[in-house]
Amino acid sequence: MKSKKNYAFYFTLFTVLLIIDQWSKIYIKTHFFLGEEVMVIPHWFRIAFTENPGAAFGMELGGSFGKYVLSIFRVIFSIGIAYYLIHQIKNNVHKGFLIGLTFILAGAIGNVIDGVFYGMIFSESSYYHTTVAKFVSFGTGYAGVFQGKVVDMLYFPMINGTFPEWMPSLGGQSFTFFSPIFNIADSCITIGLGILIYFLNKVEL
Fold first, then answer.
1. 163, 192, 195, 164: which is closest to 176 by C-alpha?
2. Where are the domains of the chain?
3. What is the pTM of this model?
4. Which among 58, 77, 98, 139 has most CB atoms closer than 10 A?
């Protein structure tokens, strides 16, 4: 009975994180134009809709082939994390470590859903258009399977400044910290990694 309760806790946490991630993406996808921004906290936090055809935090891989490779890698990575999490729950390792794994799994699956399915179920988003994306019949969307774009919207341009003139190559150029736009799934992966590192000394791997 205790084992079943353990599984239920992590499954519930995973489900809640995944729902929050997918709800936020679907809402942004169906209510915002590409490039549209809403100021939440002045000079600190904005909702800014962009789509990422590549990896986390706006990084990209080249072309359709790169997208296939990335999507398949995400699927394999997610399966591996799920298997490892189940195995570690059975071993009754430290709860903090398992929570970290659950965050990572939820984030990985969240971005897998975008890459695998969003191209099949949504019309294409466009910049400053008269309409926003809509749900469409399965398979009639803007891209094929494994070719969907990941929806990003969290933007924290907390510090704007200029690199000192004495810095090689960068001197005098402006910069923004933090410039990448990301999503809840990316946040789950980052938070999960932080939790894992914190509790790593309490687990025998």
1. 163
2. 2-202
3. 0.88
4. 98
